[in-house]
Amino acid sequence: DAKTTQPPSMDCAEGRAANLPCNHSTISGNEYVYWYRQIHSQGPQYIIHGLKNNETNEMASLIITEDRKSSTLILPHATLRDTAVYYCIVCPTGNQFYFGTGTSLTVIP
Amino acid sequence: GAVVSQHPSRVICKSGTSVKIECRSLDFQATTMFWYRQFPKQSLMLMATSNEGSKATYEQGVEKDKFLINHASLTLSTLTVTSAHPEDSSFYICSAADRGQKTQYFGPGTRLLVL
User: Fold this and answer.
1) Which residues of B sit within 8 Å Cβ distance of A?
2) Which of A26, A86, B31, B62 is most open to solvent, judged by the fewest CB atoms within 10 Å of its CB?
3) Do B2 and B95 meet the contact criterion of CB atoms below 8 Å apart?
């Protein structure tokens, strides 16, 4: 079963930062936080992952709270192509992913 | 990033026939591959975990005799839907974990329609 809770939907204005929250209050010490997104009728696309430190790559930043019970994915300058369902998943590396319902992000022109 | 392909991208078949879906890791070796199913407006549901050279591990409620998985090499896993019925119509997605297993990379999915 999914161990994460995300808001079902969010809107963001084009060009603004999109901040997507995720609660994972039962996360274990060896579990990573992964973020993927799925654009309609495609396979999920990897965005970023982290264990306890904040992470940044060319797509996004991942902020993990000190107690690791929640995290936020930040898309710094949202574009219309960022409209997708965003999934937050916690699990040890190499293990199975159990997807929750995700957050449907709509970027508005 | 790593690339995972699936073939075919979509397939239509008659009820009672079998359909094979291939999942390939194109630029890395995948010791573990995963198969998911996604119904319309729902999230991905893990079906099974496939390790190269060994039998797949199926999630509860997934019939192993109906969904045959073979992971014969480090770059190829196949899912065969046997005796397909209309209720098997779905979007089937595979993923592959690289040797370091830091993350999974997903294929583009296969849309199956059983008439």
Assistant:
1) 1, 4, 6, 32, 34, 36, 43-46, 49, 91, 93, 95, 97, 101-109, 111
2) A26
3) no
Strand order in the sheet with A32-38: A9-13, A103-108, A84-91, A32-38, A45-50
- The four Cα atoms A68, A72, A73, A77 give a dihedral, to 10 degrees, of -150
Select from A43, A46, A96 the Cβ nearest to the Cβ of B103: A46
